[in-house]
Amino acid sequence: MSELPATYVKYLQGRSAEFIDTVRPVLLQSAADALHGVRVAINEPHELQAHLDETVPFGEIVEDVD
User: Fold this and answer.
1) Which domain of life is it from (predicted)?
2) Is the entire prediction scored with pTM above 0.85?
């Protein structure tokens, strides 16, 4: 499995297990492809989505409210 870039590891620090379980697979996919960054949509209190985003440079994460 690909190693995560330092920016991704830092992003996950201090997050809940549920948050990490949702976001980490997409971060791993991004790291494996090394083409695109990740967009995380947070709709409090119960919705969280993460996906690759071709408009976000690899190694970066953008948080949005969807």
Assistant:
1) Bacteria
2) yes
